[in-house]
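Dear U.,

For the methods section draft, I wanted the exact inputs and outputs in one place so we can describe them consistently. I've listed the two proteins in the order they'll appear in the manuscript figures. Please don't edit the token lines directly; just add comments below if something needs changing.

First protein:
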Amino acid sequence: MMMYTIRYVHRNNINYVASNIDRHLIILKSIDSEFMMGHQISYDGKKLFNLTLNEDTDAVIEFEGNEKKVYEYLLSI
């Protein structure tokens, strides 16, 4: 299980960019869960858990990649 930190909230307030200590980036999409910059989340490859709020989330991973690819993906949404 990897721990990530929310680093960026997209202007649509549905997509969030999170990074881990290895600088691996993920873009997650949330429907009803609340995230803020700085929130700690864990991701085991299937499920996201908000460690800051200590609750399960409905978020799903939309994209994984390096900084350049994540930036390109965000521009496309």
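Second protein (the one for the lower panel):
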Amino acid sequence: MHEGDSGTTETLTQAALVAELLKERKRDRRAGILKAAFFVVAILVYVWCYATLFNFGGEQSDVDITKPYANVVKITGTIGPNSETSFEAVAPLLKKAFADPIAKGVVLSINSPGGTPVQASLIHDLIVELKTQTHKPVIAVGEDMMTSGAYMIAVAADKLIVNRSTVTGSVGVISAGFGFSGLMDKLGIERRVATAGQSKNLLDPFSPQTDNGRAKQRELLTAIHGHFIDIVKAGRGERLKLDTPGLFEGTVWTGEDAVKIGVVDELGDLQHSAKKYIGVDQTVTMARRKPMLETLLSGAGLKVMSAVIDSSVQTPMATVQ
């Protein structure tokens, strides 16, 4: 073999070794990525299982189900569509609470300023329906606020209990907004709207308000207000002192005054009221079962994940003797 051929062969061999080394590194990199992905997935599954086992985002698990209890459904925050207190979100909890064969009754724990009349009415009607079907006692316990739409929901209960400082009532309807026609005039902006039907544009905030628009809005609010009043009268019955000034005019009262006029029944708290009216010493708070991703992103999920990662990477400490 010539000396040149030997050099060429050596160069080819080196090139092959380099190529093989690069392939091996790529394989190692892929394996590393797969291992990391598997590790992350394993942690997520573990956290989800752990959260499910210990009931994060579900009903409380520290209740002795061999003894009587009542189910608690919370009505908190603004009542409206696409919220945690929408009919869509609350209905499954109510149905589950009433369907529980062991639960002796249902407690509505309310801390809400109200919300949309439709969502509140739907929740109210469902409570009345489930109460009629199951014949289970229902009490509503107000916390900081139990006003407007929240009060509409509360009157579906057999008894209304509040704290002396709870703000409640507000049997009224409001529609608020802004008008921008004057500002548009100053800015030289012209509003151009084409409609089919003379009433189609009555409530447009960018056009001057008309007498017909005001009249129609007042008509709508009056109709909704009448529906609200009917619900309150049906729920409270003869307990209401109908000659109370401002009773159906959006007035609010604190707990003590609300008791005097029959807006609520008495002062108290959840645990004592559950024992008095349902005959139980313990309650179970119903909670929406969160999807896996939401559970993992919650505070509890992140804590568990952190603990899992810490335990996975922990190494023995060196000791000096």
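Candidate sentences for the figure legend, describing the second protein: The radius of gyration is 32 Å. Residues 3-53 form the longest helix (51 residues).

Thanks,
Y.
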